[in-house]
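Hi, here's the filled form for the chain we discussed.

Project: internal
Contact: R.S.
Residues: 178
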Amino acid sequence: MQGRFAVALAWGGLTAVVAGCSSGRDAAARDSARADSAAVAAAPSVDSAAAPASSAATLTEDIRAAENAWRIGVTGGDTVELGRITAPDFTMVGSTGPASTVTRANLMKQISQGEVQADSSSVSDLTVNGSGDSATADLTFFWRVSRMGKAPKGETMKVTDTWVKRDGRWQLASRKAK
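And the returned structure, exactly as it came back:
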């Protein structure tokens, strides 16, 4: 009799936990919405002269994060991330011009087949310009890259990246070496 009671108690507790979890999500969403509303209400008013600086800082941070996602995707050989972060019509034009252009499909092939592998990378001297759903980023890109199985070597290049915001996320439309 005690065994049945313990099992019934355990099942009852498990049912309560499951029910609590599903209703907890709704409560958490309501709490989050209340917190957002309270934060907006409590936030000091911002004059219109300060707003552009704030949005420029936000744009710069968004593009910095996107540049880092790109860098990490390339260095890590992550074609899923690269597919997410590059626009379908992405092109990368090397310093020798159109003859060195790499499309999104070429990039994915080179990365997935190990033709291009990098073991480190960094972004520096980042300057972002733009507004709304488009931005350009001038930067210095460094990576230690191996091509076609050769020994890795460090390469530094100045590039201009063109970013577009689609479906709420930034995608790299083009990269051009200077």
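Let me know if anything looks off before we file it.
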